[in-house]
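Researcher: Let's do a round of design. I'm pasting the structure tokens now; please hold your answer until I've finished.
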């Protein structure tokens, strides 16, 4: 049983292939200044709880869409990787044809990633900024674990093709030069799919 912020059906070409259903979990290891889903950080910021079987029962309604388009489930949040036990159980019960995508900041204990590895087809990783000082100011945490986890993932055959790393311009926290430095580092370790974009300040939303 885990806390869930929401379930969004019929997403197309947002992330992951085909038609996807986004399952957004409550809870995160970071405290980003411009968090997109601030309710996931509040102790009571979830709408409900579910077991893996209950969630599967609910999302099964789109099985035919998933099968016809090569789509499936995108796990988001919050930080979905900390729900690895739930995701593991869910994916074991789900139809084997479904495509599983995770949106993660990757700042989690590696045992979560080990548990997810057999199931997840595609990773969308929001890396924030690779400069540890910028990262700490923006998220409240150290980024060494994120970098170690990224290297660990890349150690698996063919993984670079399955990873998209999102590199944000973060107003008041990093500069265009900082973003370019993050890009250069990512390219140097073999990341080929890099998505550069801009965060909005809370006041801009
Ligand atoms: S990683 Fe995502 S969910 Fe977690 S605090 Fe940052 S923006 Fe919010």
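Researcher: That's everything. Go ahead.
Model: Designed sequence:
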């Amino acid at each position: 049983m885990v806390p869930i912020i929401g379930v969004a059906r019929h997403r197309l070409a947002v992330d992951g292939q085909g038609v996807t259903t986004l399952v957004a979990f409550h809870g995160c290891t970071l405290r980003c200044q411009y968090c997109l889903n601030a309710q996931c950080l509040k102790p009571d910021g979830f709408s409900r709880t579910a077991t893996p079987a209950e969630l599967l029962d609910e999302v099964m309604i789109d099985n035919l869409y998933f099968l016809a388009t090569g789509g499936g489930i995108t796990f988001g949040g919050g930080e979905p990787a900390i729900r690895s036990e739930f995701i593991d159980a869910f994916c074991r019960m789900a139809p084997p044809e479904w495509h599983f995508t995770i949106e993660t900041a990757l700042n989690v204990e590696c045992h979560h990633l080990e548990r997810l590895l057999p199931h997840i087809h595609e990773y969308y990783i929001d890396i924030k900024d690779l400069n540890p000082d910028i990262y700490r100011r923006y998220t409240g945490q150290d980024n060494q674990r994120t970098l170690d986890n990224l290297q660990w993932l890349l150690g698996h055959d063919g993984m670079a093709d399955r990873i998209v790393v999102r590199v944000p311009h973060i107003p008041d926290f990093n500069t265009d030069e900082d973003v370019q430095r993050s890009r250069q580092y990512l390219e140097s370790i073999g990341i080929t799919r890099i998505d550069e974009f801009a965060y909005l300040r809370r006041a801009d939303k």
